[in-house]
Amino acid sequence: MGSNPRTAPAPMIVEDWDQLTFRVNREAYRSAEVFARERGWVWMHTWLYLGHETEIPNPNDFKARTLGGRPLIFCRDTAGEVHAFLNSCPHRGTVLCRENEGSTRLFQCFYHAWTFRNNGEVAAIPDAGAYESTDEFRASMGLRSVPRLEIHEGFVFISFDPDVPPLLEHLGDAADYMSMIEQQHVGGMTTLPGTQLYGVRGNWKLAVENAMDGYHFAPTHNTFVGYLRESGYAVTDDNQYAYNLGNGHGLLVLTGHGGRISMIWEPRFGEDERIRTDAHRAEMTQRLGEQRAHHVADESHILFVFPNLLLFDIEGLSIRQLEPVAPDQTDVRAWQLVPRNEDPETRALRMKTVVSFVGPGGLATPDDIEAYEAVQRGIQATAGSGLPELDFSDMSRGMADEVKGVQGRSIDEGAMRGFWRHWVDAIGLDDGIEVNGERPASFLSGRDVR
Ligand code: FES
Ligand SMILES: [Fe+2]
User: Fold this and answer.
1) Is 75 helix (H, G, I), strand (E, B) or coil?
2) CA distance 112 to 237
3) Ligand nearest the Cα atom of residue 125
4) pTM to 2 decimals?
5) Pocket test for ligand 1, best of 112, 125, 143 (most atoms within 8 A of CB)
6) Whose CA is nearest to atom 1 of ligand 1?
7) CA 59 vs CA 77, 103, 194, 295, 377: distances in Å
8) Is the pLDDT of residue 44 over 90?
9) Do the bridges between strand 300-305 and strand 249-254 make them parallel or antiparallel, or are there none, so unpaired?
């Protein structure tokens, strides 16, 4: 390990089963070299969440989006097919679509006016006769599609690597939790128009940690916890669990706080909503069976799909997408996913509740952002200090239970450890992890193990 702050020292993770400690090198959050590796290895070679199909419900709808720093057009063509194109003119590379969203059959580049259909074909090249073998030339100059695009339950994923395994293989156990979301309501779910976009002065992995971290809930969000108590709801950490789902995906199963609109009633939602929630619960039992309805309805979930999708199925259902901009800068885009057919009063209550907690100005999100921005500032204290052993963050919580085979709690750090182990593998550092002692045999994957 060098003390030169410009080079990323290995190992990034030290996992010690004799000491029961798990430590993450703080260079992981700071280093430009690590960030470049993530761009080149993680973002270029795995499935990335692009958006939800319902964001572009009609033929000709489009959204401009950026993933892994690459500008993209996410659109539905005139025939209704979903596409993702590089948002870069095949002529000389200009950003082709300069609107954030809209509806169009044609994308015209402002530079030399080349024009493309929304299925990627060239529609017009001014003075095309100046090119030899125009047909062939034209055929070679269509919009560049991303190499892979697959959709699971309306969630659209892309990959810049043509050789990634099928999406469902990548999603593994996370796939069924996404199906459970779609099954919540007859008629399925849809995104509401409008994106909440905010920049955070922190590394993207801090946002992942924060989401997989039930430990911070009571201290960081004590204003909200106080509000829940005052509105007649006991807040508890009992019976709340964390799972490694494999492939870097993680899950928190929460039953001790919150409430979910139309699923888990609590006093602050009011009596009318209690009646609607009961009716909906009965409908779900009939449609899905008792067991499945129980999993869909009675637990809140926070699902992380490696590397850039967070689904907060808590009070309402928020989709969050992480776009790393720099080692210490992340753009977050968020959407509300709601039942397609919803009673207007429930919808109004849902919006009010969501805005007051998980919205960017709610009781929770500013607390969380302050927490991970404070980490980003604080970890400068041990950067390049000449004492590299101090420059690690601790994520050991719950390891003592893990060796005994006890299920990890949401207030432990087991879901984070699963993320970090996968991350260190995904960035392709040979000596990225140092493991001391014997790992427990059964902890690596599956819903019932950490
Ligand atoms: S760069 Fe787009 S038309 Fe020339
Ligand atoms: Fe939080």
Assistant:
1) strand
2) 60
3) 1
4) 0.94
5) 112
6) 92
7) 6, 8, 18, 35, 46
8) yes
9) antiparallel
CA atoms within 13 A on the CB side of 179: 11
Contact of 414 with 32, CB cutoff 8 Å:
no
Answer whether 109 contacts ligand 1 (Cβ < 6 A).
Answer: yes
| Residue 442, amino acid | S
91 lines ligand 1 (CB under 6 A): yes
Look up tokens 């829940």; give the residue: 228
Can you tell me the distance from the alpha carbon of 416 to that of 252, in angstroms, rounded to the nearest whole number? 11
Ligand 1 atom, smallest distance to 96 CA: 2
Is the beta carbon of 89 within 6 A of some atom in ligand 1? yes
Q: Contact at 8 Å (CB) between 438 and 17?
A: yes
Q: Which residues surround the ion ligand 2 when the cut-off is CB under 5 Å?
A: 368
Range scoring the smallest mean pLDDT among 61-65, 125-129, 143-147: 125-129
| pLDDT digits 0-9 by tens, 222-252 | 888 888 778 767 677 777 888 989 999 999 9
Residue 388 has a pLDDT of 87
Q: Is the CB of 111 under 6 A from ligand 1?
A: yes
- Residue 441 binned pLDDT confidence (cut-offs 50, 70, 90): confident
- pLDDT (0 to 100) of residue 164: 97
Q: What is the mean pLDDT of residues 50-68?
A: 98
Cα–Cα distance for residue pair 116/110, rounded to 1 Å? 12
**SS3 for 227?**
helix
Mean pLDDT of the chain: 91
Question: Closest by alpha carbon to 302, among 310, 294, 290?
Answer: 310
Three-class HEC string of 312-372: EECCCEEEEEEEEEECCEEEEEEEEEEECCCCHHHHHHHHHHHHHCCCCCCCCHHHHHHHH
Cα gap 198→373, rounded to integer Å: 13
Minimal-distance CA residue to ligand 1 atom 3: 112
pLDDT in tens, 295-328: 899 889 999 999 999 999 998 999 999 999 999 9
Nearest listed ligand to the Cα of residue 214: 2
Residue type, 69: G
Find the ligand nearest to 113 CA: 1
Helix axes 204-211, 365-378, angle to 10 degrees: 130
For 239, residues 6+ apart whose C-beta sits below 8 A from its C-beta are 255, 256
